């Protein structure tokens, strides 16, 4: 009977088993059991002090991407979820949130240098006023505005000036860099204001105006004199 004969051991079985184990070893680290695939690590941080409501705040610091998924996670306050990725913030929350992120990250890096916040806001406005995030590079500056002086003030000054002279380009001198180079007032803040009234003042237009008390006192004095003269 053939069933009673011992079967020959398959010599390929150990090789197949080893190959399958190697495939599992390569593929298992990429299998997401739970969580978000773009988040590589998460750390829970507990605050040392309680908040105004007397509750202990717990922060979850996530390394990686997935801002939208983190904001919609159960137990996470989406209104207080932040990301230091400017590009991801723009894609999820919009260009205004990306502008805020730029200012916040510059403030963190330059915190001990006592920089005026207006300078950081100005830089963030320049990078985002086109509706997209433009870097402060020669490629980003070229997309912002076709200004010869602005491009020449950053890098490759002779190349930009020679190219502008060859193509007879014009510069309207409207940006911050152009105004500084030309020694003019910048068109921001007080420099953005212009006189809209002609300077043809009358003789009494620039005199000092009487206060309300002085007007009342003069009126009372005039009335008293008229009364005395009538008597």
From TrEMBL:
Pfam families in the cross-refs: RNA_pol_Rpb1_5 (PF04998)
Q: Which InterPro entries match?
A: RNA_pol_Rpb1_5 (IPR007081), RPC1 (IPR015700)
Keyword set for this entry?
DNA-directed RNA polymerase, Magnesium, Metal-binding, Nucleus, Transcription, Zinc
Q: Which SUPFAM superfamilies match?
A: beta and beta-prime subunits of DNA dependent RNA-polymerase (SSF64484)
The UniProt entry's GO CC annotations, sorted and at most eight, read: DNA-directed RNA polymerase complex; nucleus
Instruction: State the reactions this protein catalyses.
Output: RNA(n) + a ribonucleoside 5'-triphosphate = RNA(n+1) + diphosphate
EC class: transferase
Subcellular location per the Swiss-Prot or TrEMBL entry: Nucleus
**Any GO MF annotation of the entry:** metal ion binding
List residues of the RNA polymerase Rpb1 domain: 25-147
Give the EC number(s) listed in the UniProt record: 2.7.7.6
Q: Name one GO biological process term.
A: DNA-templated transcription
Recorded superkingdom: Eukaryota
Return the PANTHER family for the record.
DNA-DIRECTED RNA POLYMERASE SUBUNIT BETA' N-TERMINAL SECTION
Q: What is this protein called?
A: DNA-directed RNA polymerase
According to its UniProt entry, this protein's organism is: Cryomyces minteri
Source taxonomy: Eukaryota, Fungi, Dikarya, Ascomycota, Pezizomycotina
């Amino acid at each position: 009977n053939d069933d009673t004969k011992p079967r020959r051991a398959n010599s390929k079985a150990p090789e197949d088993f080893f190959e399958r184990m190697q495939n599992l070893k390569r593929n298992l680290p990429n299998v997401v059991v739970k969580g978000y695939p773009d988040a590589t690590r998460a750390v829970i941080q507990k605050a040392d002090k309680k908040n105004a409501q007397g509750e202990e705040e717990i922060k979850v610091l996530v390394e990686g991407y997935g801002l939208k998924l983190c904001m919609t996670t159960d137990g996470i306050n989406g209104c207080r979820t932040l990301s230091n990725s400017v590009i991801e913030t723009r894609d999820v929350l919009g260009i205004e949130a990306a502008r805020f992120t730029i200012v916040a990250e510059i403030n963190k890096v330059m915190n001990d240098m006592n920089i005026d916040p207006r300078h950081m806001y100005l830089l963030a406005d320049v990078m985002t006023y086109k509706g997209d995030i433009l870097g402060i590079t020669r490629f980003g500056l070229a997309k912002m505005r076709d200004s010869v002086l602005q491009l020449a003030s950053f890098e490759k000054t002779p190349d930009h000036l020679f190219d502008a002279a060859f193509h007879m380009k014009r510069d309207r001198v409207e940006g911050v860099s152009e105004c500084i180079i030309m020694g003019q007032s910048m068109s921001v803040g007080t420099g953005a204001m212009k006189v809209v009234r002609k300077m043809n003042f009358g003789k009494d237009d620039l005199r000092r105006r009487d206060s309300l008390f002085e007007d009342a006192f003069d009126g009372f004095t005039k009335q008293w004199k008229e009364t005395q003269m009538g008597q």
